[in-house]
Amino acid sequence: MSPFELLGLAADADERAIKRAYAQRLRLTRPDDDPQGFQQLHAAYQAALAHCRAAAVDATAPPHEPVREPSLPLSSAVPAAAGAADLPAAIEPPAPFRFDLAAFCSAVFAQASGGDAVALQAWLAGRQELWSLQLKARVGRYLLNELHEQAPPMPVDCMETLLRFFDLDHALADHDPLAMLQLTRRSRLAWQLQDDDEDRLGARLELRTPLQRWRAHWVLRQLQRPFRWSRVLWLGVNVVVPERIADFVAEASDNHPEDLPETIDRTQLGFWLAAANRQRVTRPRLILGGVRSTGMLLLGILLAPLLSLLCTDSIAFRPMLIVVGVVMVPSALWALWMAWSALVLWYIEREPRAARKFVVPLLCAAGVVLGAVGQDGPGLVLIAPALWLSVRRYWYHHASRYAVFNSGYVRLALLLAIPVLHAVLNAGLGADLLSSGDVIAAAAMLAWTADLRRQPRGQASVR
């Protein structure tokens, strides 16, 4: 078996892929548990690296220059008359000391992946080659580069042990503290999210109940699988799945999903996070909502004949339509809510759009005109969204210090207050002077004017 086959790589793999595959296999083949397997794996790793680097040198070397053998220095030249047997043993040069940095880093990562910081400290202290301060500093610099490149799995205390042993845990070590913080988080996540079994995963994530451990294991398995539309749509029918996955990712990664290990499929992760985002109208939300609506429609079509038979002792067309219509009501309400949310998000953003500046005045003007000709209902349909858009935009940009207005329940109550105000005004209170549409339109224009006055001059001129 070739070294690339042992690492599970193609023959044209680059150096980065070789190191990544080697680091992944070190989790299963540790030098303490399987010394022979570790030696075989390390030999394959070194052979693959040598082949990759030799191929890179051959590709960059000029084709017309022959490769020359290095010549011996004059001080080491042996006269032709002297034989090898004539040289005394006392002047034979000692074998040079060779320290394999790559093999040492691999062994360090294998020790750290065990999660025992005390054992790691004892193992490092027992390496006699590190008693040389010069070599220790060199190994520390090389180890830090490998840590940033591979982010091997290890807990925080093992990372701190490594940095402290090689004097890399202080400001004079000349490294970026933010980069080190991200490196520590990436290594911790790679160690915590090793998918071996539910109990170990639950212990690393400090999950208490069996249900929590099972859910964490299930979510992790889903995120590690390749993205397939058939499976994603099937899971997305359940409305709690996107939120469950998003909550697990946020809790496990401390709201840094970009630092999750490479075993997590990024397409899968991005889809579920976008599907669980209630603040935006995202493509995954629309796709899953459409699938659920289609499923409810098919369910209504299948159940309608049975319910029709129960009601009339025969299949009747009208009861079937009623059943299908009732089943589709939630889907219709959801579609209206998505359209309304998209309109609100479009209007409250700060990006300059000339058309957005005149949305509220146009809606108010159209609603007042309809009310003047006796069409109060259609006029209110136009004026009420104008009031909500103007007030929502003002809260979003200028009144964020009033946290109570950022609550969804408060916004829903204020939205429901619009038809209540309309009913009160139509009942006779103030009806002699103003109509309900005029009052609501005036409130909308007041909020719109206040928002326009508080915009910067340059921004207000281009919006």
TrEMBL record:
Keyword Disulfide bond: no
Keywords of the record: Chaperone, Membrane, Stress response, Transmembrane, Transmembrane helix
The keyword Secreted appears for this protein: no
J domain span: 2-61
Transmembrane segments: 286-308, 320-346, 358-374, 408-427
InterPro entries: DnaJ_domain, J_dom_sf
Record CDD domains: DnaJ
SUPFAM superfamilies named in the record: Chaperone J-domain
Protein name: Putative transmembrane chaperone heat shock protein
Organism whose genome encodes this protein: Rhodanobacter spathiphylli B39
